[in-house]
């Protein structure tokens, strides 16, 4: 197992490097870099993309975007050429793309992610500032989805074809068909003072006077605020995980070893949880890394916006909109690395659940 873990750790290096190279290359061809964002603000808050098209503003800045991510400004009326060169140097665009990429990766290897272009705060501090929202949505959504879907899927497998299986499948399919943002709006209208009841707050993770509360009231206030956004972000995950659990258990229940165990006089629960459970859970565990990373770190921009939550979803959207490259690439590097580590932990959980699995015997 030690050799397998070592090989997986080595494979993370080219995987992470490849992802960074692809995204860095794609960004070079996207118009409207941070220099143009600053020029647009100097022109009175205009759109940087309007400058690219040559429409200009009060200062009449015309741009010619070339590959490699640097911008060459031709005939910038009202802006000295020296000022534009200083601006490019400030953002690091006075260097060729390859040199910028190598410098960036060298800093990232030392976990130095720099500062945001437009917020005067380090990328690490910025992510930590937004992390509570993502932790709330991701952690509770994943936990609730597994706690509800796995027992429900097992029950549906045991009672396959029954009335319980039929009506629960109908509810699950309807829930899966409803987009998360639409369900969030429905919850907001019904239970957050939209048109009917005001049982839950409509914004934020805590109340404004949260610091003055006692410990128990702080916990209750926190859960009172997160109930609706967590439910909205979890609703779609129920269907996939429940049906996956059901089908996985059904496949195992139909196998010969289950019939043999029952013939030996073992009870249904002993067969189900002593033999079937370990084998059926393997496929469910295999999907955990993708679910964990997508829910925990991807963030939900729409749900965060609907419930006025300032998390990683909105951070990523604003960083892409403003061309805040340190935030874009810094978060991409960290979250990709975490995703690869979670994938490795998923393989180790395979062995923990079923010791018969031996990754060392696999050919590399």
Automatic annotation (TrEMBL):
- Keyword Acetylation belongs to the record: no
The record's Gene Ontology cellular component field reads: plasma membrane
TM annotation in the entry: 9-30, 133-154, 166-191, 222-245, 282-307, 327-353
The protein's matches in Pfam families, at most eight in alphabetical order, are given as: BPD_transp_1
Tell me yes or no: is Transmembrane helix among this UniProt entry's keywords: yes
Q: Gene3D superfamilies under this entry?
A: MetI-like
Q: What protein name is recorded for this chain? A: Inner membrane ABC transporter permease protein YejB
**The species this protein was found in:** Thalassobacter stenotrophicus
Query: What is the primary gene name for this protein?
Result: yejB
